[in-house]
Amino acid sequence: xxxxxxxxxxxxxxxxxxxxxxxxxxxxxxxxxxxxxxxxxxxxxxxxxxxxxxxxxxxxxxxxxxxxxxxxxxxxxxxxxxxxxxxxxxxxxxxxxxxxxxxxxxxxxxxxxxxxxxxxxxxxxxxxxxxxxxxxxxxxxxxxxxxxxxxxxxxxxxxxxxxxxxxxxxxxxxxxxxxxxxxxxxxxxxxxxxxxxxxxxxxxxxxxxxxxxxxxxxxxxxxxxxxxxxxxxxxxxxxxxxxxxxxxxxxxxxxxxxxxxxxxxxxxxxxxxxxxxxxxxxxxxxxxxxxxxxxxxxxxxxxxxxxxxxxxxxxxxxxxxxxxxxxxx
Length: 329
Ligand code: UFG
Prior knowledge:
This protein is α/β, with parallel strands linked by helices. The chain has ten helices and 13 strands. The structure holds uridine-5'-diphosphate-4-deoxy-4-fluoro-alpha-D-galactose. Residues 77, 79, 117-119, 141, 170, 188-190, 193, 205-208, 219, 221, 258, 281, 284, 288 line the site of uridine-5'-diphosphate-4-deoxy-4-fluoro-alpha-D-galactose (UFG).
């Protein structure tokens, strides 16, 4: 397939581009490189530097080349920032996606895979979370992702859009071949923060809340390796049928607490990793674990990376070999 990928220089996008190219797909990436990295884009893919909000540029790309499908990653993705700057989130995540969908409709492109999030579920009443668990987001980021899910669902019957919203749990890890990995600035996610501490970039790290109703008192998350996210995207895009809107959870179905992840990192890195127990971070649900059986049954997807030590180890390998992250920054 010929696939147009927005945000293909970002963390999840770049791993998906690599996987698509390695499986024989032709990929054109648009990325404004404000968070993404030029050298994260797989060599066989074509990178167009530009903003997904630039309707004129997008129209010219989508009319000059006949694409079979779109993968849409370009978005703002920090929960805390979304609380401080909601309009920027609605602009980047909802308004820009609306424009993209209009241009897809005009260009006759009827397939899209969309990066959604477990943040659309908010504070779920029970776990594991199924796709039919009520979606009640508790922050602007989650609401923008849910708004796009609605646009996709409404477009299926109205103009024949085929869509697949993939609700990621906690994306982590790096490519097995060591070529690409996670490089955010500043870093806000647990595993890279742990590894920055292990590398001495921080003297200590905070554990946000030790009084949750979980076995060790810290939050439990479902850490899904970015290569498994990539295979889910590929299977989804290959299976989409015009006029059908679907949504799948993407997680391992297993949960690890913050302290368990830190312990795994201590074993992998051999470093002490000093922690400071601090107050809860506002808005953190105690436990988020996916029931990802639907995508297994419907598309035959299953995660290859299920052991937290292996997952942390792959991230550690990337950070060891790229101490300054991507070199084009
Ligand atoms: N944590 C710490 N210390 C840190 C960083 C994180 O204790 O320095 C804890 C958090 O409190 C949380 C867990 O580690 O319990 C994971 O935190 P992350 O920030 O890595 O990830 P989140 O679970 O907050 O975020 C993920 C996705 C978001 C999504 C959100 C939905 O990355 O895109 O789940 O809740 F919106």
